[in-house]
Amino acid sequence: MNTLKKPQIGLVGTGFIASGFARLINNHAPDLQISSVLTRRPLNEAGDFPLTDRLTHSVQQIIDGSDVIVECSGDVLHATDVIDQALRAGKPVVTMNSEFHVTTGSYFADKGLLTEAEGDQPGSIAALREEAIMMGFKPLVYGNMKGFLNHTPTPEEMAYWAGKQGISVAQTTSFTDGTKIQIEQALVANGFGATIACQGMQGPKTADVTKAAIDLARGAAERGEALSDYVLAPGNAGVFVVGTHDKSEWKALNYLKLGDGPYYVLVRPFHLCQYEIIKTLRRVLAGGGVLLNNSSKPTISIVAIAKTELAPGTPIDRALGGFQVRGEAAKIEESPNHVPIGLIQNAVIRRKIAPGQIITFDDVDLPDTLALTIARQLYS
């Protein structure tokens, strides 16, 4: 690691997350420096990105000039190519890209230092888990909170909400149709050796997060294994971990307002995305290990489910955040030959697909990419 000058950070992406992270480093981290920023946009069309003088189209440039790579492009195929090159060059990689992890990330889990960052829900759950274990809790549930769910939103609805929230239509759609939370909780399950109760998870709707979280913990205890799941709780945000503790600690935990047990709910009522990446970046720079990755032996994947009838020859221009397919977490052993949704970008339908059908490798023609080669090894 470079100790003679400011640590140099190579940034991949120029969207909402990358822009916010770049502003944070530039304005509030004088001991760090962004050396270069990889973009696929024309260099003179970066919108309001704050460091236009550091934009490049060269992967080699960011690798050569950086001590750590921060990848937050949100693109599975692109991230796979860049991370492959970075790890081959011996550079540690910090991501905010759960889509990458649950599609091809397991291939790289033992090939260098690769970690998801705190800030998005999986990293925030990972940080809360670390704190819980240090305090003696034994996690049973790794939980996420979602405020709204509509499996088949319309383009008009998504355009309205994207404009109102200041993020892309694709991001808005993947949040609304549930694909993003499915991806996030699959990453958490794989990273911590947990499982899911059923395809798509349970996702109970509730006005009482603590009660619903304890109900999930009871189910996990009955199964004898930790669960990754979420609650549909309008008006709430954040993540939670439910765990048990030593019976002898009951009085103290009750006094500290955690209830009667035996299941205790720890809540982190926020996740601040790009603003928290720096915490994991500093962890890596200080010699710390992985916060979270998809593990080298995943058990959960994200199957692609048709939202509408898809005829032979239909192109899938956007899988994540599109209007043709959505994703659900599923056990790999129960979903033979499925295509992980992150791969279906730029695919062409080979045979008729009915609404609600899971798409398999036999159903689509996929572009020849490194991500496809890796996914066939992991999921076929």
UniProtKB/TrEMBL annotation:
Residues 303-364 form the SAF domain. Residues 13-99 form the Aspartate/homoserine dehydrogenase NAD-binding domain. Pfam families: DRL_cat, NAD_binding_3, SAF. PANTHER family: SAF DOMAIN PROTEIN, STRU PROTEIN. It comes from the Bacteria. Gene3D superfamilies: NAD(P)-binding Rossmann-like Domain. This is NAD(P)-dependent oxidoreductase. GO terms for molecular function: NADP binding; oxidoreductase activity. It comes from Hydrogenophaga crassostreae. The lineage of its organism: Bacteria, Pseudomonadati, Pseudomonadota, Betaproteobacteria, Burkholderiales. InterPro entries: Asp/hSer_DH_NAD-bd (IPR005106), DRL_cat (IPR048423), NAD(P)-bd_dom_sf (IPR036291), SAF (IPR013974). Residues 119-276 form the Oxidoreductase DRL-like catalytic domain.
